[in-house]
């Protein structure tokens, strides 16, 4: 009986990680005695692409092993498997053939999955225990859900006084900070905090707090801020009076610094930085000038104790002030976040949804105390072997959710756990990845009950010799310069990678000098162009597709792409293939906006400009002047003369997708295949299938997503690739160019940190604050958070640089900024400064030299050809509805003009619509949704509008359709006997009373009252007292009957 094994592989860039995973997987399944060995192995990675690659590699390896030719051919993987299993080649060949057949015939049991998919499996297994609906759906598009929640919140503005006040405060504060005027967009950005796993524990606590709690906190903070300011000002005036009373002039002090400091505070300037030399050493440094008389010097020395005491008191007061203001500044956003969270929960309950970002938190509550055999019994599988890839990107909860299964496996015989990762490639902290887990497990510095066997994959099989040597040397040097955390430092001081590739390779570091006011972005792009041109001229077999330009930010990629395109160089880039960059897509969006909102002058101008530029308009300027004054109907009439036949009325009556098709057809936007428009149509279709939304909601959603919507490109195109460093992870390229290498490793965009706050601010225990250097002075907790945050910035940004520089196979070009201080000192906070420092330490730096080379330029190896050639679509695939010659009749349209209309279809439709109406504010939005989805026509919409308004404004019903009450529309209620009832509308109050409303059509019947009475009995069994039972008969005349 063999003991279980727990191996952790430290797999640096290019070290054959996937090869090792596939090899170890094959060794297990080829020696297993199970009938379906692959069914008892779970391999987990982090992306669907990685899952596909691993499955493909395993199946292709087995296909090669199963082929008779393997016994005579050379195959490194086969040879290693045979050697390590101490078996014969023929035996492995026969086993592989059998195993391949089993996998292909039981492919569903081939369990290689993403960690999210495995967690979803667990959640479905424990849905009953977690009190989740068994038919819940997973919402992958969290942005769409957040936008829905924000829209619902904004729809309540003006009806709820407290809510309206908070939203107005939020908008004003954003305007004061010169942020976006679009409150909906700002609210969605704020709401994204709700999807971050690391923030969940803090947000769960905040969800218990009311608007009243936040208001009380803000009042308390405002009071203390005023008192603190008054104390600082009073003390500052005292110091200034003390100086004057002793006959001392400001000029008697060194640079007048000390009195200027107190004068600033006395006049409410609390922006002191406390970094000046006199402030850092106020107790010992000379406070007066060399020219001061002996009497003045003696007087200042005598006053020093009082001055020092006042300085420290005011310094502490200023930091206290910043601390209080930081908390106050975030009370409104966090209170709004709470409100959005409430709306989000309501939507999820109504639509039986779970966000993918919630998986780990939800299952963590259930799985942590469960024995592994029980979990296995639930999921119907028993895994004896675990493979976890990219472990450095695993979040805390993801790891904790796997621990019960891993410990069970390791406690038994013949089990195994294999973790593979590289803390140097951990670049996803912003989405929950925690490299420290991998570091601690690798060094056995955790409370995990089993000790791991740390293993290294020491050889770099990817890069040529000089690329490997440069990266070894450069990053080892950085370990001595950058890191404040010894653990992080040790990562880059470990054994250097061994070289495998026999080619020399080439590394080029160049620096650009920028004059004041120069377009740095353009100059970097021109340098990239120059490198590409030189490379292509160096070898006749050199191709565009050999090259990848790596950038940190999207705008850098756009700058490079624009310049390369101008010089007729083909490019592939998600940044440059953004759908929103297409003039036609911009036109469609503008036309939808103008059609929906005729008063939108901005959208109208965009439409006019596009038409003027793309049609035979004699005088575009006169055309614009003429069109801008026209009403919508007149404007579209004059387009007939240009051969454009478009009716806004027709567009509004169509669904969103059909409306877009109608626009494309009417304006002939795609005469041939257009990838942007085709992709946009796919996006519209996907959106409309998920949500019955209005045109306005669709446009808002597109604006939210447009920066990430890019046309998907096939592999193998001969074009220069441009991508962000994050997207390049796991990839390799013959030639890598890394421009804009001047990132400040400590610079962040609006960083925030949770900080424990004082007991005096109860019931709040933690608060989310704007992170800055002031944290150092926010007590021991703040100082600890600051130190930890800074060290993580160092690791994450050096890791980013490591990922960028290890993508190159043969040639690596780095382009930075040659800027140094007047003293010739480099800035060690930037990539460029670190490169200069490395060159100085190597004895290579010369003040006038801007380019440094390592290795030699050699002929690059031919690029790998793609296995499957790309098929190009020449024709645009879309047929507008009016060209189909198909008449589609919905049930509503078919029956509404028949004698059955009142009793059947109209009643069913009103039931359906009223299930979406919680208050009067929901009526128009709901009708628009049904209209856009093609369920009703515009005529029917008007008829229904008057009917629905009559219901919610009826004197006996009005109070039950107001905002702020707890309502359940068409919710299933299960009785003690197992039967279910579905009341049309149930209103419950805090005093445990309830009102039941049911909608009917046709004549009143006694059985309707009996049905309502049964509903009431069941609701009263739940502990409520039904005070009213109401039947609403929706006929030509509205009839309301209290039972």
Determine the oligomeric state from the structure.
single chain
Rg over CA atoms, rounded to whole Å, is 34 Å
Mean pLDDT level: 88
The tally of beta strands, per DSSP, is 26
Q: Which percent range fits the helix content?
A: 40-55%
How many angstroms separate the termini? 75 Å
Largest sheet: 7 strands, mixed
Arrangement of strands in the largest sheet:
13-14-12-15-18-11-19
Unreliably modeled segments: 886-903
Strand content: 5-15%
Structural class: alpha/beta
Q: List the total number of helices.
A: 37
Overall, the morphology is: globular
Could you write a compact summary of the structure shown?
The protein is an alpha/beta fold. 49% of the residues lie in helices and 12% in strands. The protein has 37 helices and 26 strands.
Structure description:
The protein has 1043 residues and is α/β, with parallel strands linked by helices. Helix content is 49%, strand content 12%. It is built from 37 helices and 26 strands. The strands form seven sheets. It has a seven-stranded mixed beta sheet with strand order 13-14-12-15-18-11-19, with helices on both faces. Strand 23 and strand 24 (993-1000) form a beta hairpin. Helix 2 (48-66) packs across helix 4 (89-105). The longest helix has 58 residues, at 294-351. The protein is globular, with a radius of gyration of 34 Å. Residues 886-903 have low confidence and may be disordered.
Architecture blueprint of SSEs:
Blueprint: E1 5-11, H1 17-31, E2 41-45, H2 48-66, H3 76-85, H4 89-105, E3 112-114, H5 115-125, E4 137-139, H6 142-155, H7 161-176, H8 183-191, H9 200-206, H10 211-245, H11 257-266, H12 277-280, H13 294-351, E5 353-355, H14 359-367, H15 372-379, E6 385-388, H16 396-411, E7 416-421, H17 435-442, E8 453-457, E9 459-460, H18 465-481, H19 486-491, E10 498-499, E11 506-512, H20 520-538, E12 547-551, H21 554-566, E13 571-573, H22 583-596, H23 601-614, H24 620-628, H25 632-638, H26 648-653, H27 656-666, H28 675-690, H29 695-705, E14 720-724, H30 725-728, E15 733-738, E16 752-756, E17 766-770, H31 779-805, E18 808-817, H32 831-841, E19 851-855, H33 891-895, H34 905-914, H35 922-932, H36 938-952, E20 966-969, E21 973-974, E22 980-981, E23 985-988, E24 993-1000, H37 1006-1021, E25 1025-1034, E26 1038-1042
């Amino acid at each position: 009986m063999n003991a279980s094994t727990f191996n952790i592989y430290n797999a640096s860039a290019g070290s054959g990680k996937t090869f090792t995973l596939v090899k170890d997987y094959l060794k297990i399944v080829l020696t297993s005695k199970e009938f379906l060995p692959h069914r008892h192995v779970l391999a987990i990675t982090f992306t669907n692409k990685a899952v596909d690659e691993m499955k493909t590699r395993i199946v292709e390896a087995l296909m090669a092993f199963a082929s008779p030719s393997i016994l005579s051919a050379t195959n490194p993987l086969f040879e290693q498997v045979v050697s390590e299993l101490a078996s014969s080649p023929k035996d492995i060949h026969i086993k592989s053939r059998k195993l391949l057949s089993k996998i292909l015939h039981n492919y569903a049991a081939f369990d290689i999955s993403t960690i999210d998919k495995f967690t979803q499996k667990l959640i479905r297994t424990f849905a009953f225990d977690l009190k989740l609906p068994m038919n819940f759906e997973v919402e992958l598009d969290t942005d769409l859900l957040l936008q829905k929640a924000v829209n619902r919140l904004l729809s309540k503005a003006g009806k709820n006084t407290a809510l309206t006040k908070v939203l107005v405060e939020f908008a004003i504060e954003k305007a004061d900070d010169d942020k976006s005027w679009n409150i909906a967009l700002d609210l969605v950005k704020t709401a994204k905090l709700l999807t971050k796993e690391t923030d969940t524990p803090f947000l769960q606590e905040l969800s218990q707090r009311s608007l009243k709690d936040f208001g009380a906190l803000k009042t308390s903070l405002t009071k203390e801020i005023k008192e603190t300011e008054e104390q600082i000002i009073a003390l500052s005036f005292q110091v200034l009076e003390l100086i004057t009373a002793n006959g001392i002039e400001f000029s008697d002090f060194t640079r007048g610094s000390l009195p200027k400091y107190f004068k600033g505070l006395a006049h409410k300037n609390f922006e002191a930085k406390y970094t000046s030399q006199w402030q850092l050493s106020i107790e010992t440094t000379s406070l007066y000038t060399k020219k001061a008389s002996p009497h003045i010097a003696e007087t200042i020395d005598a006053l020093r104790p009082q001055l020092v005491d006042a300085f420290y008191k005011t310094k502490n007061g200023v930091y206290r002030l910043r601390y209080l203001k930081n908390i106050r500044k975030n009370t409104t956003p966090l209170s709004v976040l709470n409100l959005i969270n409430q709306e989000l929960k309501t939507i999820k309950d109504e639509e039986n949804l779970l966000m993918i970002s919630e998986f780990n938190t939800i299952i963590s509550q259930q799985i942590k105390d469960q024995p592994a055999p029980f979990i296995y019994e639930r999921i119907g599988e028993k895994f004896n072997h675990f493979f976890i890839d990219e472990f450095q990107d695993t979040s805390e909860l993801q790891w904790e959710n796997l621990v019960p299964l891993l410990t069970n496996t390791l406690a038994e015989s013949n089990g195994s756990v294999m973790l593979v990762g590289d803390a140097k490639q951990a670049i996803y902290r912003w989405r929950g990845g925690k490299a420290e887990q991998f570091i601690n497990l690798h060094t056995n510095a955790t409370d995990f009950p089993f000790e791991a066997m740390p293993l290294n994959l020491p050889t770099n099989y990817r890069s040529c010799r000089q690329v490997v040597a440069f990266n070894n040397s450069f990053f080892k040097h950085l370990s001595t310069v950058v890191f404040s955390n010894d653990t992080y430092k040790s990562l880059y001081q470990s054994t250097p990678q061994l070289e495998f590739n026999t080619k020399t390779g080439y590394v080029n570091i160049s620096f650009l000098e920028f004059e004041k006011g120069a377009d740095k972005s353009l100059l970097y792009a021109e340098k990239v162009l120059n490198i590409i041109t030189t490379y292509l001229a160096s070898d006749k077999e050199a191709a565009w597709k050999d090259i990848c330009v790596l950038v940190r930010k999207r705008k850098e990629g756009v700058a490079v792409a624009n310049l390369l395109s101008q010089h007729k160089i083909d490019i592939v880039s998600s940044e440059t293939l953004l759908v929103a960059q297409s003039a036609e897509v911009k036109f469609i969006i503008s036309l939808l906006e103008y059609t929906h909102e005729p008063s939108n002058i901005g959208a109208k101008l965009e439409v006019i400009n596009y038409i003027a530029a793309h049609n035979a308009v004699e005088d575009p300027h006169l055309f614009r002047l003429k069109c801008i004054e026209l009403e919508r109907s007149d404007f579209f009439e004059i387009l007939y003369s240009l051969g454009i036949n478009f009716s806004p009325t027709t567009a509004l009556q169509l669904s969103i997708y059909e409306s877009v098709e109608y626009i494309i057809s009417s304006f002939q936007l795609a005469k041939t295949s257009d990838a942007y428009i085709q992709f946009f149509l796919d996006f519209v279709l996907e959106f409309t299938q998920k949500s019955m939304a209005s045109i306005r909601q669709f446009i808002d959603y597109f604006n939210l997503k447009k920066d990430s919507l890019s046309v998907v490109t096939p592999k193998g195109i001969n074009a220069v690739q441009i991508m962000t460093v994050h997207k390049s992870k796991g990839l390799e390229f013959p030639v890598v160019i890394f421009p804009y290498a001047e990132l400040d490793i400590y610079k962040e965009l609006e960083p925030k940190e949770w900080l424990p706050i004082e007991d005096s601010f109860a019931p709040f225990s933690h608060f989310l604050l704007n992170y800055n250097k002031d944290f150092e002075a926010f007590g021991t907790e703040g100082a600890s958070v600051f130190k930890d945050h800074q060290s993580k910035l160092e690791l994450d940004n050096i890791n980013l640089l490591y990922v960028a520089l290890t993508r190159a196979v043969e040639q690596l070009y780095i382009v930075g900024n040659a800027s140094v201080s007047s003293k010739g000192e480099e800035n060690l906070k930037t990539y460029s400064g670190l490169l200069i420092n490395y060159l100085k330490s190597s004895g290579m730096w010369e003040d006038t030299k801007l380019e440094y080379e390592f290795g030699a330029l050699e002929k690059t190896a031919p690029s790998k050809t793609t296995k499957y050639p790309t098929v190009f679509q020449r024709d645009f695939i879309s047929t507008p509805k009016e060209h189909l010659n198909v008449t589609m009749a919905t049930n509503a349209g078919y029956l509404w003009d028949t004698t059955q209309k009142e009793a059947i279809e109209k009643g069913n439709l009103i039931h359906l619509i009223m299930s979406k109406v919680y208050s009067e504010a929901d009526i128009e939005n709901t009708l628009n949704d049904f209209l856009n989805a093609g369920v009703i026509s515009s005529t029917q919409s008007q008829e229904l509008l008057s009917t629905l308004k009559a219901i919610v404004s009826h004197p006996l019903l009005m109070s039950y359709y107001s905002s702020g009450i707890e309502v359940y529309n068409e919710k299933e209620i299960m009785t003690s006997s197992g039967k279910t009832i579905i009341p049309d509308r149930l209103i419950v109050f805090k005093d445990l009373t309830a009102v039941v409303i049911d909608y009917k059509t046709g004549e009143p019947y006694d059985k309707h009252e009996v049905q309502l009475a049964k509903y009431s009995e069941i609701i009263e069994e739940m502990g409520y007292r039904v005070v009213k039972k109401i039947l609403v008969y929706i006929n030509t005349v509205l009839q309301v009957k209290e039972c």
